[in-house]
Specification:
The complex is a heterodimer of chains A (112) and B (113). Chain A is mainly β and 112 residues long. In chain A, 0% of the residues lie in helices and 54% in strands.
Amino acid sequence: KAGVTQTPRYLIKTRGQQVTLSCSPISGHRSVSWYQQTPGQGLQFLFEYFSETQRNKGNFPGRFSGRQFSNSRSEMNVSTLELGDSALYLCASSKERGHEQYFGPGTRLTVT
Amino acid sequence: KQEVTQIPAALSVPEGENLVLNCSFTDSAIYNLQWFRQDPGKGLTSLLLIQSSQREQTSGRLNASLDKSSGRSTLYIAASQPGDSATYLCAVSYGGATNKLIFGTGTLLAVQP
């Protein structure tokens, strides 16, 4: 069974640009969540999606948004990029909410 | 504020040693707790999930315990191997069936051959 996949794996953007990251969950998993990992702040929760609805949102500015499609695939978007947005963005999926979560390899975003 | 703390931040042990990693959480009303390992530059690998109604879970050489009343969980690794070297993270969820995890800062484990 294929794991969680994330594309692209690496991304370099300039301040002010916007970026879209994609996450494909494990087949049969309906819940997708996103996390940001930085050396200074560690792992921080961004969003949780289930049945195409955002169920939870972390303490991030409105520049961070996401969505989930009917096939459970999810995307997150960051607009007006700032240097501080440089991070590893991780996506996780689970069969249902509250179940064991499985993480993808992450997208490494560098903002210059 | 719901916080998760992991002590020690780093640990170095010789191969073959049994070891314990600690995780503390400030709010005992957890829904579940999950242990992960992360290799450098990689995503997280799930190790064990403990529901709030459980006291422990075992998988191979790993055993995780949960004591909600004291706000603590421990991950026991038996007969450590160099391949166990990684950062170990615990994460807690609150408030029912949710995938919002609050992560600890991790313990960097080095197992010396």
